[in-house]
Design a protein that fits this description.
This protein has 449 residues and is an alpha/beta fold. Helices cover 36% and strands 21% of the residues.
Length: 449
């Protein structure tokens, strides 16, 4: 039978989806990209904030239409949205045949095989398929089907979160922070590199706390050092490091290893101490400034990306102006902003000083307009620089190769367009190119070697 998958939300969710694909592939299902051709459609949802919930519901309804217009007979929905709202969804969406909660197959639960064994037997019964002996039904990092192309892959180094920021529902959905063992991660990395992929992106809810729960202290620097020993690995990135846990050892490790991209993704959320305190963040505005200053001093070519939140309950005009001035002065290389989303069950949802949605939108627009100007300035400074580019694709008209430098995370940051003035096929290669122009958040380059 044909099965199609839809993965919503973050890259951590995508890794779950890739492991699910592995289970079905091992059990002789045909994986299809066209939902019209799928007998079964499985949607892995996100339920983090309001916009993600809306996207998930819309996607479920869209996929349910293939029961009328395509081959689909079974619609399965799983993931974070189901974890939070399974009972409500069962009433709201009768089009869905099976709902699977995240906790039913979470790594920490140890029962993922039982859940997918039951699911596969249910499918066999539904389609009246003759019983066959099932292959492995456990979600397995080593048997997942990587869906991000031939150049890079995500590696999830930990699950869950124990930070308990007052606005965030992740701990209630994904549970506490649980690290994987260094040796298991390195083994997975070696297997991925053997497939020809040369870039690995380490992900978790908070990568800077990696290892604290099982080794008694943060071990991200140690993990990076071990990964750097993999011979054919070219680039290593790690995303989502909280500022309070960026240690001197981590900075030195990034600084002194050529395989590690000089790129820090640091979600500061705010700079006002009063807002940070109500958010239950473990840092202060002063410590954030000190961390950024240290990174730029120790690693002169470092790229710093951040995310900020506007409209948190009780955020005053003065708090916002403090954030605005900080962003203006700091000139982050990359910055994303989002408005506070009132998530039920979180402490922040019970705070009385909720901000009007129009005020939140206005503040968001001001921050993003400011950052657009900063980004244009930053991009212009790159003109004339020679960069190493990982070539991933070519435009339809063949005029440009498309890739990324160490400064850009796939699907998040900009792209590098290299003028095609060679007869060679460069896809999958690392090449040197000089920046000759910029366009929005992208770079235009010419080959130099």
């Amino acid at each position: 039978m044909n099965i199609g998958f839809v993965s919503l939300g973050c890259s951590k969710n995508l890794v779950d989806t890739e492991m699910m694909i592995g289970v079905f592939k091992n059990n002789k299902y045909t994986i299809v990209n066209d939902p019209k051709q799928a007998d079964i459609i499985l949607i892995n949802t996100c339920g983090f904030i309001e916009t993600a919930k809306e996207e998930a519901i819309n996607t479920i309804l869209e996929m349910a239409e293939y029961k009328k217009t395509g081959k689909c007979k079974l619609l399965i929905v799983t993931g974070c949205l189901v974890e939070r709202y399974k009972e409500k969804l069962e009433k709201l969406l009768p089009e869905v045949d099976v709902f699977l909660k995240y906790s039913d197959y979470a790594e920490a639960s140890g029962n993922s095989g039982n859940v997918f064994e039951k699911l596969l037997k249910y499918i066999d019964n539904y389609f009246k398929v003759k019983k066959q002996k099932l292959a492995s039904t456990n979600l397995d990092f080593m048997q997942r089907v990587i869906t991000t192309g031939d150049q890079y892959a995500y590696i999830r180094i930990a699950e869950g979160c124990s930070n308990r920021c007052t606005y965030c529902a992740i701990p209630y959905i994904r549970g506490p922070f649980v690290s994987r063992k260094i040796e298991d991660i390195v083994e997975e990395a070696k297997q991925i590199v053997k497939t020809g992929r040369k870039e690995l992106i380490l992900i978790a809810q908070d990568t800077s706390k990696y290892g604290k729960d099982i080794y008694g202290e943060p071990k991200l620097a140690k993990l990076l050092q071990e990964l750097c020993k993999i011979e054919d690995l070219k680039w290593i990135r790690f995303l989502y490091t909280y500022p309070e846990d960026i240690t001197d050892e981590l900075i030195e490790t990034v600084k002194n290893n050529n395989k590690i991209c000089k790129y820090f993704d640091i979600p500061i959320q705010h700079i006002s101490n009063s807002v940070l305190k109500r958010m239950n963040r473990k840092c202060t505005g002063e410590s954030i400034k000190n961390t950024i200053a240290k990174l730029r001093k120790e690693i002169p070519n470092v790229v710093i990306r951040t995310t900020v939140m506007v409209g948190f309950p009780g955020e005053t005009k003065e708090d916002f102006e403090q954030l605005y001035d900080f962003v203006k002065k700091t000139k982050f290389d990359k910055l994303g902003a989002f408005t506070y989303s009132k998530e039920e069950g979180t402490p922040a949802s019970r705070l009385k000083e909720q901000i009007h949605h129009m005020t939140k939108k206005s503040r968001y627009n001001k921050i993003m307009e400011l950052q657009q100007k900063i980004s244009e300035e930053n991009e212009t400074k790159n003109v004339g620089k020679e960069l190493e580019i990982l070539v991933e694709d070519i435009t339809k008209d063949k005029k440009y190769y498309v890739g990324r430098s160490y400064m850009d995370v796939p699907g998040i940051d900009g792209l590098a367009y290299i003028k095609n003035n060679t007869d060679k096929n460069l896809i999958g290669q690392y090449v040197k190119a000089k920046v000759v122009d910029t366009k929005d958040y992208d770079l235009i380059l010419e080959l130099t070697k």
